[in-house]
Amino acid sequence: MKKMYKSKNLITGTWKAKVFYVCVIILPMLQFLTFYFGVLVNSVLLSFKEYDMKTGEYVFGGGAYNYRLFFSELKSPSSNLGQMFVNSGIVWLASTMLGITLALFFAFYITKKMAGSGFFKLMLFLPTIVSTIAMALIYRRFTDRLLYSFFNDVFHYDFGKPFAGKPNEQFTACVIYTLIMGFGTQVLMYTGVMSRIPTSVVEYATLDGINAFQEFFIITLPLVYPTISTFLVAGVGGFFINQAGMYDFFGSKAEQSIQTLGYFMYNKTAGDGAVLSDYPKMSAFGVIFTLIAVPVTLLARWGLEKLSPNVEY
Amino acid sequence: MNVKERKKSRFSVYGLVVGAILSLYSFIILAILVWGFMVSLKQTGEFWNNPYPFFKAGEKVEFKYFDALTQFKVYPKEGFGSAYYDLIGMFSNSIIYAVGCALVSTLSPLVMAYVSSKYKYKFSSFLPKLVVVVMVVPIVGATASTLEILKSINLYDSYLSMLMLKGGFTTMYFLVFYSAFQTLSWEYAEAAFVDGASHPRVMFGIMLPLVKPMIFSVFLIFFVTYWNDYHTLLTYYPSFPTAALGLFYFNRNTDTSANETMLLTGCMLVTIPVIVLFLVFSDKLMGNISMGGIKG
What we know:
The complex is a heterodimer. Chain A is an all-alpha fold. Chain A has two domains: 2-47, no CATH class; 79-307, MetI-like (MetI-like fold), CATH 1.10.3720.10. Chain A is 73% helix and 3% strand. In chain B, 43% of the residues are buried. Chain B is globular. The chains are: A mainly alpha, B mainly alpha.
């Protein structure tokens, strides 16, 4: 009997095992089919519909009107869609490219257990666990009230009130906020991978007299490359999603010229600026963004794999 | 120069530069939080005159933290006579929301990873690939579609909708659990099957307890995430203000210029529980993510 059970098939091949298997996967699979696959299909269908004011329902009829609207808005000088692409690009560069670069330097510092590394690790992770809305509300008052008063009183310099100031000042304040609040998870990931690099490799290089910068660029970076490329690939979609904390700071009232695509989409569907008649338009925009994001993601993945240094440890 | 000295000297420039940046970063983060706490102890009028985190002569310390529990009110549905929530009610909602959603968000990838790694059917080998595809391929702007589906099945603005939305298994934690189960020996299960244990008994009684610390870490991470989350509730369950959503409503609906310090008190009250949780369980919260470090 015991021998029979040694074969996994005699355990998992029984009808009881199959019933158990189906019972376990049925709810998660239903969830997936409804809220991923179903939502995706419905999103495409909704993008071809329009809102019927009389019945309050979405009906087919406009054809590809919502898609045409996207391209006409993109060309229109009165629309901010083009500016939103630029803003999203800046936020993406700051949060993904600059964010990853700094996170790698920080992770190396922590992995090498340099002075205060334990404390810095905690500090870098702290913003990740604090409520975004609480942090944003405090940060806004910190810059607009404390820094404003401090620079005025001590240096007689008009620091301004970034969040109550000009749109470019508001945007800069949002970008800085996004950058400084986003290190936590990344640093932990990189620290985890860097700590797995064999000490023998590093010690051998140390005997050759390399300094910390050389170790970072020549040894560490190539070895953590797979993790970096994973973050870069996963970060592509962030271009269309990142709100740069704007909804936390301004609710639905962010200046049009500073809005990112993520903020615009959220505000039009879920925020105070949401209107039911905009749903088909937003779905069409979402489909277009997905159609851009998917090939770019796959291309980035392919390109980063091609560039991958041929190292193993 | 011995090896120790050589190691020390080669890190000196790097350590100085990055250490200085990290010190400045830590100072900013701590300054924001400490300043938030200190000015929450001021009266609003005094805060407008003196935004510094210290008290001038004649200024009083006003500890509002207990009063705020009942005085910090929000009205999710605007209009005369509408129901309101105070902070005690909102904290109760936060616990109900965070615990319930953290449970389903942990259990769903956990059980799927278990059957996928231990029951070698064709469908099982398909699941990890599906998860990777879902994680890598970005879907943008599906909120309108999700809202329409929830409204059409009468689940919009309900707790059940939250559990359903958060019960997805296609998260990175599927891969974390999957790799953990793959390293676990199946012999424990075989021995139990010989003794007549059923499949649910083996899963819940033997295999899952072997990854208990990991389950706890993932639950904790989700708990903190949902405690802080307000976007999802604002979108799909707006009549259920948690403490985080309450902060948003309070900031939006109240004349905050007259209630600045009350708002900051609310911010600190929402923040303090997670900081305590973080200090107690920092190794669990940060350790698990390191374990889940993606390679390749």
